[in-house]
Amino acid sequence: MTDLRDPNGDENDSAIPRRAAARTAKLASLPLGMAGRAVGGWGRRLTGQSAQDVNAVLSAKAAEQLFEVLGTLKGGAMKFGQALSVFEAAIPDDMAAPYREALTKLQAAAPPMPAKQTHRVLAEQLGRSWSSRFAEFDDDPAASASIGQVHRAVWHDGREVAVKVQYPGADEALRSDLRQLQRFSRLFQSLAPGAEVKPLLAELSDRMNEELDYRAEAGNQREFASAFDGDEHVLIPRVVASAPKVIVTEWVTGTPLARIIADGSAEERDHIGTRLAEFHFSSPERAHLLHADPHPGNFMRTGDGRLCVIDFGGVARLPDGIPRYLGQMTRLALDGRSTELMSLLREAGFVRSGTELAAEDVLAYLAPFTEPLAGEHFHFTRRWMQKQAGRVGDTRGQDFRTGRSLNLPPEYLMIHRVTAGSTGILCQLDATIPARSIVEEWQPGFAD
C-alpha cells in the first residue's frame, strides 16, 4: 500500500490520449496497416510461400495491431474491442488464434494512469479529504476497464473495496472513437463475422452517457444487488459510495472467466456456464433489468462457486420482463410450426407490412438457433457458433437473404445483442448446460 499523502507521477501525464487528431490517426492506422500487410502478403505469395503460412502471419500481425491500437486508446475503442471479443468464437479456427489472443486481452488490459492523476480525480469526486474515507488505498490499479481503472482499497470501516476511477477525458475520447469506428465498420465486420457491427456501434453510442455516469451505474448495481441478495448462485457486490466519476463497491476475489475459458476443467466450464445462463434469463424477471455488457471481463467464479457479476454501466430496463412474444416465437420455431411463427412475427413487427417472405424460409433461418433447446442439455461449442455465423453470413445462401428481409424492432435490439453475446461466452467456455430447463423457467411464453 502506498502513502495516500505522498502522490507520485507526472501531473501532465494523461490516461487517455485526448487530442481528437491523434486518436483519429491511431484508429485510421488499422485499415491502412491491414491493407499494407495484404499487399506485402501478395508479394510473399509470388515468391513461393504458401497461402496458409502467409495468412497466418498476416492474421497474427493484424491482431497485434488491433490490440495495440484499441487497448492503448481505451475509451470507445477499447469498449468496442471488448464487445467484439465475445464473438471471437464465430471466427473460423484456421484464422482465429491470433485474434482470440488479442481480443481476449482487451477484456481486462490497458495502460494505467499515473497515481497523481488518480488522486486528483478522487479529490474532485469525493472531496479534498478523500483519503480519510479509506484506511488503505493501493495506487497500483488491480484492473482496468474501457473508461476507468479499478484500485483495491480498505474502507474506513475495515471492508475491502474496489474503487473504480474514470479516466480524465473519457467523455471526449468515447465520442471521438465511436464516430471514427463507425467509418470502419466494414473492416471490423470481417474480424467478427458473428457480430452485427453497425448496430453494435450505434448502440454503444446511444448508451454513451449512461456509461459515463457512475452514479447511474451505482443505481443499477444497487437494484441488481437487491434483486439477487442472498442468492445461492449469483453474487452482486454492494455499492459503498458513488460520485459521477468514482464508484466504490465491495471487493470480491474470484477466478476471472477468461482464465476458466483458457484452462478451466470441463466441470468448471459447465458449472459457470449454467450460472451465466441462469443470470441472463432470470434478471429481467427478478430485477426487471438486463445486464447489457456481456464479456468475460465482467464475470468471475467465487470460491464457493457463485457467479460474480460486475460493471453495470449499461443495462436494459425491462419493467415487464422479457416480452412474451420472444418465448412464443422460440417455441414455434423449435416445434417447426412455420405458419403460426410467420403470423406471430408479423404481429410483433419482425416482418414489415408488404414484405414477401415464405414461411418455410423463415423457419429454416430461425430453427437452427433453437437447437440448444431441443434436448435436456446442449454443448455450446465454437464449431456450432461458426456454423451459425457462416450460415447467416453466406451472401449466396437463402438464409442470408431471409435474414436481410427480417426486421428487428428497436425494443428488441439490446435483448438480441446481449443474448448473442452471452451465447458467444458459452461457446468460448465450451460448456454443456441444461439450457432448455433454464429457458422454460424464466422465458415467458416458451412453456405455454
From TrEMBL:
Report a single Gene Ontology molecular function: ATP binding
List, for all copies, the residue spans of the domain called ABC1 atypical kinase-like: 105-329
Q: Which UniProt keywords apply?
A: ATP-binding, Nucleotide-binding, Transferase
Question: Which Gene3D superfamilies does this UniProt record tie to the protein?
Answer: Transferase(Phosphotransferase) domain 1 (1.10.510.10)
Q: Which domain of life is it from?
A: Bacteria
InterPro entries tied to this protein:
ABC1_dom, ADCK3_dom, Atypical_kinase_ADCK, Kinase-like_dom_sf
Is Transferase found in the keyword set? yes
Entry's transmembrane regions: none
The entry sums up its family as follows: Belongs to the protein kinase superfamily. ADCK protein kinase family.
Q: Write down what this protein is called.
A: ABC transporter ATP-binding protein
